[in-house]
Protein: Probable transaldolase
Amino acid sequence: MKLFIDTANVDEIKEANDWGVICGVTTNPSLVAKEGRDFMQVLKEICGIVDGPISAEVISTQHEGMVEEAKKLAAVHPNVIIKIPMLPEGLKAVKILSQQGIKTNVTLIFSAAQALLAARAGATYVSPFVGRLDDVANEGMQVVKDIADIFLLHDIPTQIIAASIRHPMHVIEAAKAGSHIATVPYKVLQQMFSHPLTDIGIERFLKDWEGVKFKF
Ligand code: E4P
Structure:
C-alpha cells in the first residue's frame, strides 16, 4: 500500500517528502482554507515538491462548472488529479473528464455502492472516508474491505485511497483491507514513527558508545 499525505501545508509536505515515505498528496477545500493562501500558488508549490498524484478539489456542484474548474486545475501540472464529490452531477463530470484523459478522484465515498458507481463512471481513484464513518458508529474499514473485494473480483482498475485517517491503526487496517493507498495527515505520519522501545534502544546505544575508543 502506498502512502499519500493529506494536507495543503507546504512545510508538512516538504518534510514528509524528505522522509521518502509519501508519493502523492490529497487536499480538500477545508485543508486549503486552513492555509489562508492563494490556492493556485499552493498547488504549484506542491507539484514542485512531490512527483506523484496531487488531488485538487472542484467546488461547483453542477457538472459543467466542475469540468470548467477541472480544466483550470489540470493545466497547473500533469500530476494534478481532479477531486470530484460523489454526486450524480459529479459522476457526469467524471465521465467527461475520463474521456478527455483527465484523471479523477471521487471523494466523500461512504459506501461500496457509491464506489462501484464512481468506478463505472471512469474514476481513477475513489476515496472512502474511514474516520467520518467511524464517527457515526459505522465500521469505516469494512467499506474499504468491501470495495477492495469488489474491485478485485470484477477486475476494476480504479484505485482505492483510504481517507479520513485518524490514527496509525487506521493505516495498518487499510493496508490489511487491500487499499491501494492511504492518505495520511502529517500528525499521523509522525505518530507512525513512534515506539518507546526505539527511544530506549537509541538511548542505550549512545550510552554504551561512550565506552568505545573511537571518534567519527
Ligand atoms: C481525503 O481526501 C480528505 O481530504 C480527508 O481525508 C478528509 O479527512 P477528515 O475526515 O479528517 O476531514
